[in-house]
Design goal:
CATH topology: Glycosyltransferase
CATH class: Mainly Alpha
Oligomer: single chain
Strand order of the largest sheet: 3-6-7
Family: Belongs to the N-acylglucosamine 2-epimerase family.
Organism: Lutibacter agarilyticus
CATH architecture: Alpha/alpha barrel
Strand content: 5-15%
Order of helices and strands: HHEEEHHEEEEEHHEEHHEEHHEEEHHEH
Structural class: mainly alpha
Keywords: Isomerase
Pfam family, one: GlcNAc_2-epim
Largest sheet: 3 strands, antiparallel
Radius of gyration: 21 Å
Protein name: Mannose or cellobiose epimerase, N-acyl-D-glucosamine 2-epimerase family
Shape: globular
């Protein structure tokens, strides 16, 4: 028994040391918001923060705050003081950024000076990522009362967006008309899984069956519809019956694509290796497709060690936007970290590029965009409607797990 406990303690210490490799980057990112965005009276964080840390508005966005909670909750293992900050932010979110209707609770986009935003429509991105922080906090600090709120929010989310006829989710919901025809997309299938439901399945072990049917259904639709083998890019926009919209006019494509969504889809498929509720045959198919997506994406981009551009025409493979976006590179690093060691060189090089170019160690935080010459674009806000600390912290999480596997 003593030997076993000593071994466990040694492994916990080793895991913590591996995560602390990123302490400089974590502290630089979180301290930027702690020092510049935190309101000690409301005990929460303002969302819109410029390059030097100036608060540009008093808006507090649901997604940015939820993503802040995610990062604070995850890092609390190494920085215990962060769990209290996360709890305070959650209290603000639950008290100020949630409303109710006949279906149930939903997230409000933002609040400013006590005035809540008001709209007749809500979108799946803001609703799904509103749950992101709550679930990460619950995984670190289980609480029956919080879990009850999560269950209520999830139930209302599913009822609002779920297509009970053709499967999957609509992307938009109107309080006046219901589900909005024509709003189905790659994101409406993928984001509910990647932002919260897969993590909820992991931490809410007693209620896993509640989530498994939806996870299976969305994965199958993504497997069947989301990847275009011919172009090597994801399909982004769909009809209500999950047919890909006509994207044959190269001068006026139905949708454009981002490498970040390619990598995000690949990561999702590769994550399924640990999901016990899936048939083994499906897991094998998902692993193969995940690896295929990474391979084809890198081929489309030619090279990734010096970063990659933000947007492409999927028909011509021509670059539409030469800027380089922080979140897309974080998604790429996650995908490579899950690729079973197939891209070790690219992973090391891309991570070095990420921290050397996107993080700002003069004023703190990280840049949203780089130019095609890797110069930071300082006019873009470092904190915004969806930008706080989530993507980088999530990337560090997967990189840490990858390093642990390699060490073992």
């Amino acid at each position: 028994m003593f030997v076993f406990l000593s071994s466990c303690n040694a492994q916990e210490k080793k895991d913590k040391q591996l995560s602390i490799i990123y302490s400089k980057q974590i502290e630089n990112l979180i301290s930027f918001f702690d020092e510049n965005a935190y309101d000690s009276i409301q005990k929460t964080y303002y969302s819109e923060i410029d390059n030097k840390g100036k608060v540009t508005s008093k808006k507090i966005y649901n997604v940015a705050l939820s993503r802040m909670v995610y990062g604070l909750s995850y890092t609390s293992e190494f920085y215990p003081e962060n769990i209290k900050k996360a709890k305070n932010a959650i209290n603000f979110q639950l008290n100020n950024l949630i409303a109710n209707d006949s279906i149930g609770m939903y997230f409000i986009s933002n609040v400013e000076n006590g005035i809540k935003s008001n709209s007749n429509e809500i979108d799946i991105w803001q609703q799904a990522y509103g749950l992101c922080g709550l679930i990460e906090y619950y995984g670190n600090k289980p609480n029956d009362q919080l879990l009850k709120k999560i269950h209520q929010l999830n139930a209302a989310f599913v009822k609002r967006f779920k297509d009970t006829i053709n499967g999957g989710f609509y992307g938009n919901y109107s309080f006046l008309k219901g589900q909005i025809s024509g709003s189905k997309s790659l994101q409406s299938l993928m984001y509910p899984v990647t932002s919260y439901m897969a993590n909820l399945w992991e931490v809410d072990s007693e209620n896993r069956i509640k989530y498994e049917t939806i996870l299976k259904e969305n994965l199958q639709l993504l497997y069947q519809k989301a990847w275009n083998k011919k172009t090597g890019w994801v399909n982004v926009k769909f009809t209500d019956t999950w047919n890909v919209c006509d994207n044959s006019d190269e001068n006026n494509p139905c949708f454009t694509v981002t490498p970040g969504h390619n990598f995000q889809l690949a990561s999702l498929f590769l994550r399924t290796r640990d999901w016990s509720f899936l048939p083994e045959k499906d897991k094998v198919n998902y692993q193969l497709l995940g690896q295929e997506i990474i391979k084809n994406t890198i081929s489309n981009l030619k090279t990734i060690e010096n970063g990659f551009y933000s947007e492409y025409n999927p028909i011509t493979n021509k670059v539409i936007d030469q800027r380089k976006t922080w979140w897309q590179h974080a998604e790429a690093i996650i995908a490579l970290s899950l690729a079973e060691g197939n891209y070790k060189k690219e992973l090391i090089e891309l991570e070095e590029f990420y921290f050397e170019n996107f993080q700002d160690f003069e004023y703190g935080g990280e840049y949203f965009y780089l130019t095609n010459k890797n110069t930071s674009i300082k006019t873009e806000l470092k904190g915004s409607i969806g930008k706080s600390i989530y993507h980088t912290i999530e990337m560090i999480r997967y990189q840490t797990k990858n390093q642990q596997i390699n060490e073992n």
